[in-house]
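Student: Please help interpret what follows.
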Amino acid sequence: MKLSFFALLLILPVTATAGLFDETEMIEVSLSGPVSSILEDTEQRNERPFVLGVNGRDIGIQARVRGKSRTRVCDFPPIRFNFSDSDAAQTVFEGQGKLKLVTHCRNNSQGTTNVLEEYVIYRMFNVLTDISYRTRLLHIKYDDTSGKLHKDASPNYAFLIESGKQVESRTGGEFVDVPAISQSRLEQNHAAVVFVFQYLIGNTDWSFVLAEDSEACCHNGDVLEMDSRMYYVPYDFDLAGLVNAPYAKPDPSIGLRSVTQRRYRGYCIASEPLAAALSLVKSKKTEIMNVLQELPDYSDKAEKKSLKFLEDFFKKAEDESRLLKTFEKRCLG
């Protein structure tokens, strides 16, 4: 019996090395080292030695600042951990290499809320497909040996993003650098899920064109090749309406006043996969909503705001034919 694309999404083999991204429980850690020094080093971005503490173990790692726009707008830009030469045996970090850490952007309660909201978006997308980046939430106590860290920066939440190699291992695909995605090779079923999901979360900060300062496709997404088909795997959701970060502004060319206004930005594809994707998202409503319940220190006010934002989508989705017509009218050729 030939399985549908959506059935295959549920049975892709899981072969992650150390189980870091197989579980979803938050991990309490400490990070000791020149934190403020690496946050200020946005030009050279040199790695410096740090000690990562977890469950009574101290692991020597290397870390540096990373990111593009967030190094300009954030008090506390993202970091990259390098476990390559670390002795992390018999810890949850065993077998890891270089991992992206998404940190709180602003040193205030809103910054804490926003990093939790971006984390939960990754988890929501995981509900829909395994062809996605998995994440692991951390609660970090920062010990800045440079002595200049803002008092409201620690402790705080952050999350690690699964490496591309682990996604390749799980899916059997391979990430490729291409100048553009060929429409003839685009896996339309998965693309449709991406399109509907980006609309669900109110995200317009993505596309199939070249990324900023890059010669490879795509903006806020990587291209995974599998069985001669191309899959767009999205990341970076901080400008989504569901997060509504203080610094988030829609691209002026789109004509929106706020990121909380939804605008379909999917590409023009066949109607059947788009209808199937919308049905899939609707069928996963309870699971998507329940992910919000897992967040620690998420205020009732913030949760109500997020639930309302999502409910607005599902209310529109009750009239599937009308919403699909909107998608088809707005699609990018």
Observations:
- The first strand starts at residue 27 and ends at 33.
- DSSP finds ten helices and twelve strands in the chain.
